[in-house]
Design goal:
Elements (H helix, E strand, L loop, with lengths): L6 E8 L3 E4 H7 L1 H7 L5 H6 L3 E4 L6 H16 L8 E4 L11 H9 L6 E4 L6 H14 L5 E8 L2 H13 L3 H7 L8 E8 L9 E10 L7 E9 L2 E8 L1 H23 L6 E6 L4 H11 L10 H4 L6 H11 L8 E8 L3 E8 L1
Parallel strand pairs: 4-5, 4-6, 11-12
Antiparallel strand pairs: 1-7, 1-8, 2-3, 6-7, 8-13, 9-10, 12-13
Helix pairs in contact: 4-5, 9-10
Length: 347
């Protein structure tokens, strides 16, 4: 995928105020850890995640996404009525139907001409949304669009803790650790042909996607039936297999992107990765031959926020002047499935 007239104009984000430490979660399952002979501090040590955020118990995903969307619009000095498309891409959504994007679009004040819909692809949703808008822009169908997403880990964190207390077995603990790394937040990415707003955009050069669909069962999050009309939320992850096979997929995708964009290792100045944890980060950077200061990690204090991890990390890096004009930046996403997408941006 190559693009000639696509720009990322702004990224807005919103983080919850409630900070929940990994130590707090571990203390809540202390009886489980004691029974299994696992020391308190194990989860933080293995994942490198010290804390994450939770929305209030009754918080609406639409509210978070709308706040992030308005921030992205304000930064670019445009209004919702200027948008030709709104795409919601979160794993978490309000209902099966209508599309969560509809409520957000109404909050943003989009016009009736706007295309409004949802995309779902695990943690790759926002990147898929960016590419969907980029294709429409390149074809001349639209001038600008907004990708929005809001994720909430509070309920799955709570359910996993309850499940571990009810079913204290080492197999259950191992498959549940990744579920306790989740965080919460919202993000919005404004993508355009460069003709709108007052802020110069960053050019989307292109990208690639690769998949290893044979590993679709390594991480699953959904609902399961426990009685005739009673369902419970669950998440199970084979973390070791996700790391091994995800790393192989990521390395292959990276090399394919270098070839597609005619980039090389030394010309890439910074990378932003999907925020999984320290093992994945260290393994991936080592495999690519980069030092750890090549990327910009946020997982130690935000956890894994699914689809919004990468855009929020990118936005915070922008705030801290991590990128310089002309830098080539790689946005590297991976999600359950397994799917991988990497985008190249010129700052």
């Amino acid at each position: 995928m190559r693009y000639n007239k696509v720009f990322i104009n702004s990224i807005g984000y919103e983080l919850p105020n409630l900070v929940v430490t990994t130590r707090e979660l571990e203390e809540r399952i202390s009886i489980v850890l004691k029974k299994l002979g696992i020391p308190v501090g194990y989860i933080e040590d293995v994942t490198g995640i010290k804390e994450r955020r939770w929305w209030p118990a009754e918080h609406s995903l639409v509210d978070g996404a709308s706040i992030a969307g308005n921030k992205a619009l304000e930064t670019a000095a445009i209004s919702g009525s200027d948008l030709d498309a709104v795409i919601y891409t979160g794993v978490c959504r309000e209902y099966f139907e209508p599309a969560t994007a509809c409520h957000i679009a109404a909050n943003l004040g989009v016009s009736e001409r706007a295309i409004v819909y949802d995309i779902s692809n695990a943690c790759l949703g926002v990147l898929n949304g960016i590419i969907d808008l980029a294709n429409r822009i390149e074809l001349g169908q639209i001038k600008c669009g907004l990708v929005v997403s809001c994720e909430s880990a509070r309920q799955i964190n709570e359910d996993v803790i309850s499940g571990l207390i009810k079913n204290t077995h080492i197999e259950n603990f191992i498959s549940s650790v990744a579920s306790l790394t989740g965080g919460s937040g919202a993000a919005a990415v404004l993508v355009s042909d460069g003709s709108i707003g007052e802020v110069a955009g960053h050019r989307l050069v292109g990208g690639v996607n690769r998949s290893s669909a044979q590993f679709h069962n390594l991480c699953r999050w959904g609902m399961r039936k426990i009685q005739d009309s009673l369902f419970e939320q669950f998440m199970v992850t084979d973390a070791n297999s996700v790391l091994k096979n995800g790393l192989n997929l990521g390395i292959n995708t990276w090399h394919c992107m270098m070839q597609e964009l005619n980039w090389c290792k030394t010309t890439v100045k910074k990378i932003i990765t999907h925020q999984i944890g320290k093992a994945h980060r260290s393994s991936f950077l080592q495999a690519l031959g980069y030092e750890e200061d090549m990327d910009f990690p946020t997982f130690p204090y935000l956890g894994n926020i699914g689809t919004v991890s990468l855009p929020i990390s990118t936005a915070i890096a922008m705030e801290r002047a991590v990128f310089k004009s002309g830098d080539r930046v790689g946005l590297l996403g991976i999600g359950s499935g397994l799917n991988c997408m990497m985008l190249g941006v010129e700052w």
